[in-house]
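Chain entry —
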Amino acid sequence: MELTYENLLSRLVKAVPEFPIDADHVADNLVYLTFNDLTRFVNTRLEIEDNTELLTKIFHFIEEAAQTGDLQVQDVLQDALYEIAVAPIEKTNRAKMYMGRRTQKLFRKLEAQIYQR
């Protein structure tokens, strides 16, 4: 089943059960709010060395989402990745190590927009 805006949160819950997602956000399909929470969660985990498995799992899910043709999903990802792009360079570089090919491509576009490179 393809990942879409409508099933994005339910798929996130299954893919990354360690992420403490608000059940009300899932019930109300508050995708942007949840992905902003996910980005803060990722930024916090990037500061801790022993989160490799969890970060790999999260970025694998983001990579899967980046492959969908659903424009709303792409917009959610850009919005979420923005928080990583404007984080301190050490965090940004560490996050890039976990990104798949499509996520990196999306991230490079976002960095180009932010920093006008």
Observations:
- The mean pLDDT is 93.
- The radius of gyration is 13 Å.
- The chain has one domain: 8-115.
